[in-house]
């Protein structure tokens, strides 16, 4: 096989300057460009990681998710317990998935090369990229709905655009709002990771400020905290034994909500200067930040009942009910910014790396991001988002594959390779390279993904039709599809590697081996 050198094939249109990464002369351009190569210097602090999680948590989806847990029929203290346990589990898993990328200074798709093979790594890259495109479209559409409210309030003439003109299922006003946000997100993304870091550094705190103002306003309108019932549970109270499975389900929902950002986190942890700073940022950004935001969510949602006469768990609807122009402008634009924040960090950056990874010679990080952005329009998310069945089958099917990818990566890095990776071999197409395996694919990883993926997908989408057919009701299992996929991915990959070893056993003392277990990386 003829090797293509980086000098012969690498593009100059990448966001990371080549003098900021390690690009060796023997790196194959089919595997390397300045966006995928190891970083020379990692500069992000713990606050940047903290801000990343603020952008993920402080969104309309995070608000609705946290609020919905209080309506499961269990007591408030039990919901808070589920929130704490769930987010601590997320923190532990995030710390694990952060380690290989931070230690080697490379994004997620590159880290999968030592597990799946230098060619096989495109399988998880494509899967993750497709998932991100779907969610990118949905999140942009949801943010555009908030922007519609601002337009309708301050420019009444836009009502005609909202009702009289439609194209491909979306109103003219919807297209305008979607287009504005599409361009705004693209502009932030196009300026590169430094601009994204600056954006998320202030976007999360801004939402906090508005949430505090909203909470104070609603509590005052309700006549004080004593007039608010903080227990949002509905229906007949559950006994302790009845509440246990509900609490477990609530924990699973918290973990599942963060499944995407959790898998994507390596794309950001690669920029952190130490693993210790990553763990510190994760601590403040996940259990501490999530708990505070959840409490603010409960206060705001609980106050809507005495203030508006009904429980409202959607912050956009809450702001709309306030009616005051300043409130709609401030609240609407803030939650637009919040949604843009999570969309960029969770659904824009990652597919940019994924699609660039498929063909580094022809697809730069920016080009990969534009593929995702254009794809988000082509799928017309407003059409299938309005269809409950379409959402259930599409997003659950895609999301179910996140678990196996996570489990296989963790098994490969911590259990099989013992955190020892020959980084240079992840950038060579030579059959003599450690990660060439069989024609560039590790059969154990591919087989584990196929089996775990099929079972995880079945656990997510099969229970609902089985119930509708009147066979049996196991719909509860859908809430645990991520755990099923992650657990099976881990166990199957370890089993296959033990039975038929493919991954190399490297010498920790070798200067060519990255040892993530060394104290210097902690």
Give the termini distance in whole angstroms: 39 Å
Low-confidence stretches: 1-13
What amount of the residues lies in strands? under 5%
Radius of gyration: 23 Å
**Element order: H for helix, E for strand:** HHHHHHHHEEHHHHHHHHHHHHHEHHHE
Q: Structural class per helix/strand content?
A: mainly alpha
Fraction in helix? 55-70%
Strand order of the largest sheet: 1-2
Principal-axis shape: globular
Largest sheet: 2 strands, antiparallel
Helix count, per DSSP?
24
Q: How many β strands by DSSP?
A: 4
On the 0 to 100 scale, the average pLDDT is 87
Give short descriptive properties of this protein.
4 strands; mainly alpha
Characterise the protein shown here.
One of its GO terms (molecular function) is nucleobase transmembrane transporter activity. This is NCS1 family nucleobase:cation symporter-1. InterPro entries: Pur-cyt_permease (IPR001248), Uracil/uridine/allantoin_perm (IPR045225). It is found in: Membrane. The structure is a single chain. With 522 residues, the protein is mostly helical. The strands form 2 sheets. It has a two-stranded antiparallel ribbon. It has a two-stranded antiparallel sheet with strand order 3-4. Strand 1 and strand 2 form a beta hairpin. The chain is globular, with a radius of gyration of 23 Å. The chain starts with 5 loop residues before the first helix and ends in a 7-residue tail after the last strand. The N terminus is likely disordered.
């Amino acid at each position: 096989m003829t090797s293509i050198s980086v000098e012969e094939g690498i593009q100059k249109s990448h966001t990371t300057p080549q003098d900021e990464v390690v690009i060796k002369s023997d790196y194959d351009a089919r595997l390397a460009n300045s966006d995928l190569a190891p970083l020379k210097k990692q500069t992000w602090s713990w606050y940047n990681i903290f801000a990343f999680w603020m952008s993920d948590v402080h969104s309309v989806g995070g608000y609705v998710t946290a609020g919905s847990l209080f309506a499961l029929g269990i007591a408030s203290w039990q919901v808070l317990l589920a929130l704490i346990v769930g987010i601590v589990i997320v923190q532990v898993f995030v710390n694990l998935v952060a380690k290989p990328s931070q230690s080697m200074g490379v994004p997620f798709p590159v880290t999968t090369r030592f597990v799946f093979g230098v060619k096989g790594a495109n399988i998880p890259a494509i899967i993750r990229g497709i998932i991100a495109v779907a969610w990118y479209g949905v999140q942009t559409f949801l943010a555009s709905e908030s922007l519609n409210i601002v337009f309708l309030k301050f420019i009444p003439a836009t009502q005609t655009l909202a009702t009289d003109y439609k194209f491909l299922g979306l109103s003219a006003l919807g297209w305008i709002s979607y287009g504005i946000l599409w361009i705004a997100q693209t502009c932030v993304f196009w300026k590169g990771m430094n601009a994204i870091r600056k954006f998320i550094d202030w976007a999360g705190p801004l939402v906090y400020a508005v949430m505090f103002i909203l909470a104070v306003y609603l509590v005052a309108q309700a006549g004080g905290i004593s007039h608010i019932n903080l227990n949002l549970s509905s229906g007949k109270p559950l006994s302790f034994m009845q509440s246990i499975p509900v609490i477990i389900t609530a924990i699973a929902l918290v973990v599942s909500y963060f499944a995407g950002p959790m898998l994507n986190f390596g794309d950001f942890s690669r920029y952190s200067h130490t693993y210790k700073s990553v763990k510190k940022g994760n601590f403040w950004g996940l259990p501490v930040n999530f708990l505070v935001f959840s409490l603010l969510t409960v206060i705001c949602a609980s106050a809507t009942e005495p203030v508006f006469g009904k429980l409202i768990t959607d912050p956009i609807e809450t702001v709309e009910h306030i009616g005051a122009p300043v409130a709609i402008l401030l609240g609407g634009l803030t939650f637009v910014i919040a949604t843009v924040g999570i969309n960029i960090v969770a659904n824009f950056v990652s597919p940019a790396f994924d699609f660039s990874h498929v063909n580094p010679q022809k697809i730069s990080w920016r080009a990969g991001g534009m593929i995702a952005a254009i794809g988000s329009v082509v799928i017309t998310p407003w059409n299938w988002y309005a269809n409950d069945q379409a959402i259930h089958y599409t997003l659950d099917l895609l999301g179910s594959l996140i678990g196996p990818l996570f489990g296989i990566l963790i098994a490969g890095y911590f259990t099989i390779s013992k955190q020892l990776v020959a980084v240079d071999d992840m950038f060579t197409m030579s059959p003599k390279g450690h990660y060439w395996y069989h024609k560039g694919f590790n059969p154990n990883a591919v087989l584990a993904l196929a089996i775990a993926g099929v079972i995880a997908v079945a656990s997510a989408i099969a229970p609902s039709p089985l119930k509708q057919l009147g066979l049996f009701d196991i719909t509860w299992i859908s809430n645990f599809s991520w755990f099923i996929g992650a657990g099976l991915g881990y166990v199957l990959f370890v089993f296959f590697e033990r039975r038929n070893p493919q991954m190399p056993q490297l010498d920790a003392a070798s200067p060519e081996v990255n040892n993530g277990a060394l104290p210097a990386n902690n």
